[in-house]
Specification:
Length: about 180
Amino acid sequence: MREFREVGRSQISVCHLTPDDWRTLRELRLQALADSPESFFGDISAERNYSEKQWRQELDLSVWLMATFDARQVGLVKLNCNARSHDDLHLEALWVAADMRRRGVGETLVWAVENTAATKGAQELRLWVFTENHSARDFYLRLGYTGPLDTQEIKSNGRRRHEQEFLKHIKVVGSPANSE
């Protein structure tokens, strides 16, 4: 999968990571957890110790998309496919490098995940956001997600937190509008 979006004179490119890209996933995922640990359910100390087999398995079970900008790896997102049906797919683990936020990378990654889910037969896409992550909640609402639909308490990184569920009805569409 290769998707392009113009941003100024440069392009945001999105590609689907395969099991052979496990080192890239490891590097970006650990960078995301180090950069924004409060935004993710994952635990950097645990994931730092994952084996090659575990990273490859993650890439076999879910769809991971990576964004590049001027050939630099700047974003990552996961489509959780460990669902019972194609209507239970979840957008997870969206991360954009701090210096690339608010430049269309996150929007492009979400668009790519939505299209990937739609090509798998999904008519809706769900996601969960920690209640205190107001910027993420506002971002998803701006992109057409509705919610919160449900709230649940979970234990994340050693503490109890609440997260809220959001939903968007999806279909395969063309390139996202240029927000620049």
